Amino acid sequence: MAKAFRIALSGRPGPVFLELAWDVLCNGVDEATLQIPRLYRTRARQAPDPKGVEEALALLAAAERPAMIAGSSIWWDDATDALRAFVEPAQIPTYLNGAGRGCLPPDHPMFFQHTRKEALTGADVVFNTTVPPGVAPFLEQLHDSGFGSRGGKLVCTYFEENLLGVLPPAHVEGLYSCLDYYQTVDDAFSRRLLGQ
Predict the structure, then answer these.
(1) What is the pTM of this model?
(2) Is residue 18 part of a domain?
(3) Which of 32, 67, 96, 181 has the most Cβ atoms closer than 10 angstroms to its Cβ?
């Protein structure tokens, strides 16, 4: 259990599949002998790659039709304020999915919800924070919209590299950068973005 929680809450936070054998699940334990692990995980975060941040900033500055897909990582990282600090000055239309729903209020000027398909059809740069398992359907929707064939660029703030061997290659066309952006908003990208 400790390992499951450590994996779920570190690196790229998200769901973990935990399977217990039936005989283990049904066995009891004497609570007096139970040793509860302490300090078995860290809350330290890795900062984004500065080169990737600069490249993402350049993509955003050059974008004519950017879009933001904000998913569960916003909730997992308690990054609602960071999301606002990102989309408000840049005026990026933002679509929420998964546990990201509710991170922007319904009356927020950058919150959009019923035009996602149309936005993806026309977007030239998409910032994505969706984490597995929701990233595969999102990438399929992006591919089906013709995003990659139009030369669209996709910046994922989280991306499990092992998915590259599982997803159809056409669905990850246009994957430009993986930033782990929401670990901090005190970086060159944020300072420059908020100064614009």
Answers:
(1) 0.67
(2) no
(3) 181
The two tokens of residue 14 are 């998200």
Q: Over the stretch 138-193, which tens digit does the pLDDT of each residue have?
A: 888 888 888 888 888 888 776 666 666 667 777 766 665 554 444 444 556 655 65
| 116 assigned to some structural domain | yes
- Give the domain CATH number at 82: 3.40.50.1220
Each residue of 18-67: pLDDT tens digit?
888 888 888 888 888 877 777 666 666 666 677 777 888 888 888 999 99
Characterise 106 by phi-psi region: left (phi > 0), alpha (psi -120 to 50), beta (else). alpha
At CA 58, angle to CA 52 and CA 63, rounded to 5?
125
Range of the domain at 73: 50-195
Query: How many independent structural domains does the chain possess?
Result: 1
**Which uninterrupted H or E stretch holds 85?**
helix 80-90
In sign, the C-alpha dihedral spanning 47, 16, 2, 73 is positive
